[in-house]
Amino acid sequence: MKFLENKWAFVTGSSRGIGQQIALGLARRKCNIIVHGRVESNAAETIQRLKEFDIQTHVVAGELDSPQNVEALIRAVKAGPGSVDILYNNAAIQNTWKPIWEIGQDEWLQSFQINLFAMIALCNAFAPAMKQRGYGRIINLTSGIKDIPQLAPYSVSKAAVDKYSRDLAAELHGTNVLVNYLDPGWLRTDLGGSNAENEVETVLPGALVPALLEDFGPSGRFYAAQDYKMLEF
Ligand SMILES: NC(=O)c1ccc[n+]([C@@H]2O[C@H](COP(=O)([O-])OP(=O)(O)OC[C@H]3O[C@@H](n4cnc5c(N)ncnc54)[C@H](OP(=O)(O)O)[C@@H]3O)[C@@H](O)[C@H]2O)c1
User: Fold this and answer.
1) Where does ligand 1 bind, in terms of residues with CB under 6 Å?
2) Which of 152, 162, 179, 213 is 20 to 30 A (C-alpha) from 143?
């Protein structure tokens, strides 16, 4: 079994839902975790659950809703444990359901800021140092959402995440900084809702696959967490 000892993972939106599961899964592989929520108190449950693992943890808090807030968050991470070896860009929002014609530019901008522009800023902040160290794993959360026009800001921002991930992978080709994007499946979380097909726990072990890739492994690829449900964990 492969372990991630002495590595640090920054999992955005790890205060609950899928991000919390990813943090727990990585911790099980001995990875140290930087836990993130919008405010510090939101991270308390994840920190408590991580106590069963023999790892280090660090909490950062902050909104991703503006370039200034993202910069402040980046500063907080850099002032913390230092290096980020695994950047798991998980935090995102889904816009309020409404007819596509009624979705205002502010709502489009908010979805793109939190779901895409913040991700880009975080990659810009941490990928160069990964490249210098010759190791990095970046995983960006995407979605398999089908044609639901009422949620277009959400799904269009996720489509952009896919293309951005492939472009960044091309930029980092040959550096051992691997960039991939993951669809967790439709899961019962605050975002996924109570009608979702799967329990949130089913994101594991699939979500670990792109984090555990061998050196110079696949990059710019799409992973579906539900494809790995049968894997031993
Ligand atoms: N659930 C699904 O069915 C599904 C399907 C496909 C893709 N995904 C993707 O999986 C990822 C996680 O989804 P989820 O279902 O776990 O969502 P969730 O339960 O709503 O959790 C969202 C997480 O993101 C953080 N967050 C929300 N708004 C933020 C903001 N403005 N600034 C900073 N952090 C913010 C939250 O922090 P706080 O706790 O502090 O609010 C929380 O940790 C997302 O990228 C989502 O698009 C989910």
Assistant:
1) 13, 15-19, 37-38, 42, 63-65, 90-93, 114, 141, 143, 183-184, 186-187, 189-192, 196
2) 213
Distance CA 170, CA 36 (A): 28
Question: Which residue's CA is the nearest one to ligand 1's atom 5?
Answer: 186
> What domain count does the chain have?
1
Sign of CA dihedral 201, 202, 205, 207: negative
Residue 233 lies in a domain: no
Mean pLDDT of the chain, nearest integer:
97
- The pLDDT score that the predictor gives to residue 135 is 98
pLDDT for the residue numbered 177: 99
Give the number of other Cβ atoms within 10 Å of residue 52's Cβ.
10
Number of neighbouring beta carbons within 10 Å of residue 41? 11
Asked, for residue 36, whether it belongs to a domain, the answer is yes
Counting atoms of ligand 1 from 1, which one is nearest the CA of 115?
45
Which residue's C-alpha comes closest to atom 46 of ligand 1? 92
User: What CATH number is given to the structural domain containing 162?
Assistant: 3.40.50.720
Q: Which atom of ligand 1 is nearest to the CA of 91?
A: 24
3 belongs to a structural domain: no
Whole-model pTM: value is 0.98
Give the residue numbers spanning the domain of 70: 8-228
Please give the distance, rounded to the nearest whole angstrom, from the Cα atom of residue 113 to the centre of ligand 1. 14
